[in-house]
Amino acid sequence: MSITNAPLVLYVYRCTVCGQAGKLHLPESSPEVTTACSACGAEVLAEWDGGVELVTDQPD
């Protein structure tokens, strides 16, 4: 079992097709990422929300 300390960044988006607001937690990569809307599948631009969370996989 491995323990990872990977900083994750909160990315947020609002779909221009269906209006869905969404968020993603992804490894820090760039201020903006292209992804698919979770509701309709349209391509959306998710922007870095500025929050960083430290996630650690801990055994139960």
Structure description:
By secondary structure, this protein is mostly beta strands. It has one domain (7-51). The chain is built from no helices and 4 strands. It has strands at 5-14, 21-27, 32-36, 43-56. The chain has a 4-stranded antiparallel beta sheet, with no helix packed on it. A hairpin with a 6-residue loop joins strand 1 (5-14) and strand 2. It is elongated. The model has no long low-confidence stretch (mean pLDDT 80). This is Zinc ribbon domain-containing protein.
Count of the domains:
1
Summed up, the helix count is: 0
Biggest sheet character: 4 strands, antiparallel
Flag low-confidence runs.
none
Q: How big a fraction of the residues is strand? A: over 45%
Which percent bin holds the helix content? under 10%
Q: Which of globular, elongated, flat, extended, rod-shaped describes the shape? A: elongated
Q: Got a strand count?
A: 4
Q: State the secondary-structure class.
A: mainly beta
Mean pLDDT: 80
Radius of gyration: 14 Å
Distance between the termini: 12 Å
Please list the strands of the largest sheet in the order they lie side by side.
2-1-4-3
The sequence of SSEs as H and E is EEEE
Protein name: Zinc ribbon domain-containing protein
Organism: Pseudomonas rhodesiae
